[in-house]
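WARN retry 2 of 3 for item q-0093 after timeout on previous attempt; input resubmitted unchanged.
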Amino acid sequence: MTDVNFSDTLPAEPDASTTAIPIDLIELLFFAYRDFTSDPDAVLAEFGFGRAHHRVLHFVSRNPGLRVTDLLAILKITKQSLARVLKQLVEEDYISQEPGPQDRRERLLFATARGEALAARLTDLQTRRIRRALTAIPPGGQDIARQFLYHMIDPDQRGDVARLIDGE
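OK item q-0093 returned
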């Protein structure tokens, strides 16, 4: 995300009392998310996987050596929710786990070659959809879209998300 500096001071939240309810944007987000996930969903179904598998595989692939505790924080899920999905991905050789270098109880996650291939296939589908959408908007629209999505994130989480996206 090199085009936007996420560490810039953010403007104040709009006053809800003077802002009309953006029902159209709410519905557009629902439909955009439906279609954004539909292409990967079809591929994931071939493997008996769902969206939770996709999210885990995506973040592990993008962040080799990701700690399980960090993945839980990124996804905002419980250990129990992650356990079933992670177990299946490990058993089917999409993700490997290694003990931490200092604390052997710590588990570090890595996508295997098979996991990297599936993650790339899913990312390619979503990249194509995003590129099609970006070609249909005016110049500078990509930065506006990026800022909009960034501001949809809870303010107390934005810094962590920006660091994760920037690879820090």
